[in-house]
Amino acid sequence: MIYWLYERMLERNLQILPGQVCLLISAEDLALSPEKIADVVRWSRDLGIKGITFHISTRNPASVEPFLAKIRAVANGARLRLLFGDRQEISGEGMDVTVAVGKSGREEITACIRRMAEEHVSPEEVGEEKLESYLTFKYTPDLVIKTGGDHLTDFLIWQSVYSELFFSDVNWDLFRRVDFLRALRDYQARKRRFGR
After folding, report:
1. Distance CA 194, CA 176 (A)
2. From residue 58, how far is each of 7, 25, 155 by CA, in Å?
3. pLDDT score of 96
4. β-pairing, 164-167 with 87-91?
5. Does residue 139 have a pLDDT over 90?
């Protein structure tokens, strides 16, 4: 009962929401609680957040295979983009949800540079806008949430340079709606300067 009241109070006081949220979780976290992805998508959709990305860090993308059906289940009411190794699946309609398995920001930037070289882009043409046009993820998350005590990954290393970072001491399998709302409350309280 107390958490329900606390949730309502947190939600009622939210006035500024991020447009894009990114959650960083590990393959081990996913194994403990794969249904949590659907929960976070539902919470985001209910609050009016436009898009959410999950980065599942793993050196072995095959370890996530058993959970792909649960991940695909979030496509109900969402436009799911699943990036798994070199494969990409897009299904559904609605709020944008991206699940990237084992993707690295360094690999993404390296691939951009390779594609520019293959297309004979001259060094004089290379700038921030040109590089951004080659990125796989063409959005910047307003808020990056890392659950548990783990370190950050290099996912969206270019795109998240001006993102607000929130570190939750709650592990992924115990992450509740109230914890998500706390992250949003923290985001709302920050004065964003975008590098200025």
Report:
1. 29
2. 32, 9, 11
3. 92
4. unpaired
5. no
Q: What pLDDT does residue 44 have?
A: 94
CATH class of the domain at 19-189: alpha beta
pLDDT of residue 53: 92
What is the rounded CA–CA span in Å between residue 37 and residue 45?
A: 12
Does residue 169 contact residue 47 with C-beta atoms inside 8 Å?
A: no
Say what the pLDDT of residue 155 is. Answer: 80
Dihedral sign for Cα atoms in the order 85, 87, 88, 91: negative
Instruction: Please report the DSSP string for the chain in residue order.
Output: -HHHHHHHHHHHH-----SEEEEEEEHHHHHH-TTHHHHHHHHHHHHT--EEEEEEE-S-GGGGGGGHHHHHGGGTTEEEEEEETTEEEEE--SEEEEEEES--HHHHHHHHHHHHHHTT--GGG-SHHHHHHH-S--S--SEEEE-SSPPP--TTTTTTTT-EEEE-SS-GGG--HHHHHHHHHHHHHS---TT-
Return the closest-CA partner of residue 158 out of 116, 110, 190.
110
Q: Enumerate the domain spans of the chain.
A: 19-189
Are residues 109 and 128 in contact, defined by beta-carbon separation less than 8 angstroms? no
Chain segment 38-51, per-residue pLDDT in tens: 999 999 999 999 99
